[in-house]
Amino acid sequence: HVYHASWVRSFIQLIKPVNTTDVLTELGLLSPWIRSGISDVHVQSLVKLRNEGRLRHASLGLLSVVYYADYDPDAMLYEAQCSNLSVPWREIPQRVLDIGFAGNWWILDSKMKDYDVNEDEFKHLPVHMQVTSPPSVEKVERNEKLHKDSWLPVSTERKVKRSSLALTHAGQNMQTEEPRD
């Protein structure tokens, strides 16, 4: 029974609904000037729907669906309670906000990609600076070699030879010069 209970608990965690609090916390740690506008707007809309009681979650086994409703289920308005005024089935696909499978939310994950990069920051740059391309293989290999070489100990042997050679020449010049009166 203990094994079964832990499996059920882990399965429930696997299909849990969108946890907007965790995502909001991640975004909240960033300055508004840094966070992605796409991520921010999406998460703020999910939080607004959740706060209004309109965010719904339906678990279909391993697949979960998050959608929005017109009213909070506790609302005592006639429109909210009348089954004849409920949403027609053909409108349900337009109300789907996200689809989850095994704990991963596809739309939320795609909107949260690069949530810490504000694309609007780069709009004032010239076009050639707005888009970056990956470096060539040769550039990567050159940078890796330079990085590797930067960790090698500095050899002072050449400097010692040069300085002793310079001292030898200076000593010879001193001997060949005659003192002036």
UniProtKB/TrEMBL annotation:
Family matches, as Pfam families: Tim29
GO biological process: protein insertion into mitochondrial inner membrane
Highest rank taxon of the organism: Eukaryota
A Gene Ontology cellular-component term: TIM22 mitochondrial import inner membrane insertion complex
Name of the protein described by the UniProt record: Translocase of inner mitochondrial membrane 29
Organism: Neolamprologus brichardi
